[in-house]
Design a protein that fits this description.
It is built from 5 helices and no strands. It is mainly α and 67 residues long. Helix 2 crosses helix 3. The two termini are 16 Å apart.
Length: 67
């Protein structure tokens, strides 16, 4: 599942994928894969991304249930 919330939060801060990757010490490809839904990050990486973007885990990584 695509992570549009993370992509939106990154864009709102005018950060490129490379900028965010540098802040959390991963490759740009890792950020791209998370946003595309091709990679499930560790909890530690999730926390680092949240801190870098000023968001909570729920705001970026919680998926709403759909019936």
């Amino acid at each position: 599942m695509k992570n549009l919330k993370m992509k939106s939060a990154r864009a709102a801060l005018d950060l490129s994928q490379q900028d965010l990757a540098a802040k959390v010490n991963v490759s740009r490809q890792t950020i791209n894969a998370i946003e595309k839904g091709d990679y499930n990050p560790t909890i530690n990486l999730c926390r680092a991304i949240c801190k870098a973007l000023g968001k909570t885990l729920d705001e970026l990584f919680w998926e709403e249930e759909t019936d």
